[in-house]
Amino acid sequence: MDAAAASIKSLGGSVQWYGFQNYNNFCPDAGTLTKTIAASNPTVAVIPNWCPTTQTQYIKAMEKAGTIVVEDNNGATWKADGAVTYVGESNYAVGLKAGSTFIADGYKHEVCVNTLPGTITAEQVCAGEKKTTLAGGGTFKELDLPSSAHDNPSAVEAAVKGFLLSNPSVNAVMTIGPGDADAAAAGIASAGKTSSVGLGSWDLSTNILNRIISGKQLFTIDQEPYLQGYYGVMVGFQYAKYGIIPSAPIPTGPNVVNKSNAAQAKAGAAIAVR
Fold first, then answer.
1. What's the CATH number where 18 sits?
2. Angstrom distance (rounded) from CA 127 to CA 146
């Protein structure tokens, strides 16, 4: 977003960022945040619709008022919402890729740790993983935790440890974010299963990349958030100013980062483009 904003500023425009303080009350807060954005009456709004039950009414209200909406990060409902396009990846495809990657690596008994239950984003990831896991002859379970756990590493660590000890056949853990991945890695270690349970995650962080490089994590799925922010803002600006728009949504993933390419991803992260 910052990189795109610099270009837009040179052309006489401006970009304002809105975000969460925490994830303790995710869907209600997403609705409040979307309402706040709508009230600012922007020319363009670049926004994910994570929780249609709380966000869609405000997305449609701002469109009715003349705001151009580009959806990014979560595009499950972008057409129905009336957005002009979508920039990002398919959450379901992330799950499909995670499940098939675990299966290909020999980890057939999987659990998807969902710390944002009720959001399209997390639900689709777990659903996709379930599909390819079962299709590959594996077994699948979902561990749903309250959204407050998304910001509570100790809660995720304890939950993962307890789950693995109660379900000894499970040998693969999928998480939906870097913080959860760190906590799950700690939970796996606390359960004494680092050498036997594979860890997969979504998104990048230095800790994740270091674990992959050192052999303590199998993979992560990179959705390339830099591209989501950059293209989302630039597409919206160009459509508003010039009336031009790509002829199709812009996919930014899912891309698997594993031991074969983690060093390259780490180099990109060092200059803030991964």
1. 3.40.50.2300
2. 18
Task: Measure Cα distances from 136 to 81, 132, 150, 167, 170 in Å.
Answer: 35, 6, 29, 20, 15
| Pairing of the two strands 255-257 and 250-251 | unpaired
Q: Answer yes or no: do 76 and 100 share one domain.
A: no
Please give the span between the terminal C-alpha atoms of the chain, in angstroms, as a whole number. Answer: 13
Spatial CA neighbour of 49 closest among 68, 69, 66, 64: 69
Count other Cβ atoms within 10 Å, centred on residue 264. 12
**Letter string b/e over residues 209-241, b meaning 16 or more CB atoms within 10 A of that residue's CB:** bebbeeebbbbbbbbbbbbbbbbbbbbbbbbbe
Supply angle C-alpha 274, 102, 77, rounded to 5.
60
Strand stretches in 51-158, DSSP E: 68-72, 85-88, 109-114, 139-144
What are phi and psi for residue 51, nearest 5 degrees?
Answer: -130, 85
Q: Going residue by residue through the chain (274 aa), what tens digit of pLDDT does each one get?
A: 999 999 999 999 999 999 999 988 999 999 999 999 999 999 999 999 999 999 999 999 999 999 999 999 998 999 999 999 999 999 999 999 999 999 999 999 999 999 999 899 999 999 999 999 999 999 999 999 999 998 899 999 999 999 999 999 999 999 999 999 999 999 999 999 999 999 999 999 999 999 999 999 999 999 999 999 999 999 999 999 999 999 999 999 999 999 999 999 999 988 888 8
Range of the domain at 123: 91-222
Residue 50 lies in a domain: yes
